[in-house]
Design a protein that fits this description.
By secondary structure, the protein is an all-alpha fold. Helix content is 62%, strand content 0%.
């Protein structure tokens, strides 16, 4: 069979997923320091960030670049995570 896997690391990753991952890892305050855009500094929310980033190509490029640079950090966070999996909780009954 043909294996049609994309070599693009952002394939299948939405902008909302990127923002949520960055906020979970860095928090809004640190994200505002790393990427100097107002939607991360003044009353930040995922909705307002998405609206701005979808209309501003240079800002979206910076977010995508930070996301790609942080992929190794996200993997380390997941391996260190000792929180229970909500999908498997309660399955023992």
């Amino acid at each position: 069979m043909n294996d049609h896997r994309s070599k693009d690391p952002l394939h299948g990753v939405t902008l909302e997923m990127q923002i949520n991952a960055l906020v979970a890892h860095y928090g809004w305050a640190e994200l505002g320091k790393l990427i100097n855009i107002n939607c991360f500094k003044s009353d930040p929310s995922v909705k307002s960030s998405l609206k701005f980033l979808r209309r501003t190509p240079w800002a979206r490029a910076e977010v995508e670049a930070l996301y790609l640079d942080s992929l190794d950090d996200f993997a380390a966070d997941k391996s260190d995570d000792s929180a229970p999996n909500p999908w498997t909780m309660g399955k023992d009954k």
